[in-house]
Design brief:
190 residues; alpha+beta
């Protein structure tokens, strides 16, 4: 049995194994705005890919980054998608400390599919790991614009977004700003 994978992205078609894309025996899978047509015989590979990615995502949420990295590496051997690249980038940053490489992989995934909030979530997590809190917050906010994701909201709450000072002309450390802000918050005015 031979498998041909056709990846359609931004109107371009890449064809592997030289098989005819006009075959009526294909399954279409839409994942991260990538349309993959897998001819007969590839159904098992597709199912394995989906299982690996769902198990990998569950492992990331549980905090098992080494297991998730192995699962996403296996999934990338079956089909290279922005989803797999983004998760692999986050796992590399988290498990091996390769923050620049992980951020680069997430940014490439965002370039391929800028409407997926999950990519912004993983990139924001990498920025937070790197100690770039402001960049992480901006990335999470961009992700929320693409779609509401409770994990992004949880990350923002965890980082603790500071509100603007009550008196903008005074420094944040000024006691007047500090205590007025505390009073306003307790009164529910902020």
């Amino acid at each position: 049995m031979s498998i041909a994978i056709f990846l359609t992205f931004r109107g371009q078609v890449e064809k592997s194994n030289g098989l005819n894309s006009n075959s009526s025996d294909h399954v279409e899978v839409i994942s991260s705005r990538v349309v993959a047509k897998i001819l007969v015989g590839g159904g098992v590979m597709l199912q394995e890919y989906e299982n690996l990615t769902s198990q990998g995502a569950a492992a990331v949420e549980k905090g098992n980054f080494m297991e998730a990295m192995m699962l996403f590496e296996n999934a990338s051997q079956i089909m290279k998608t922005p989803l797999v690249d983004c998760y692999l980038g986050y796992c590399l940053a988290r498990e091996q400390g390769k923050l620049k490489e992980g951020a680069k992989m997430c940014l490439e995934a965002i370039q391929k599919d800028p409407r997926n909030p999950l990519f912004y979530l993983n990139l924001g997590r990498i920025y937070a790991l790197a100690g770039q809190k402001l960049q992480a917050i901006r990335t999470y906010q961009k992700g929320l614009k693409m779609g509401c994701d409770q994990r992004i909201i949880a990350e923002l709450r965890h980082l603790g977004i500071r509100r603007n000072p009550v008196f903008k002309k005074l420094s944040r450390r000024n006691p007047l700003n500090k205590y007025c802000g505390m009073v306003f918050r307790r009164l529910g005015l902020r």
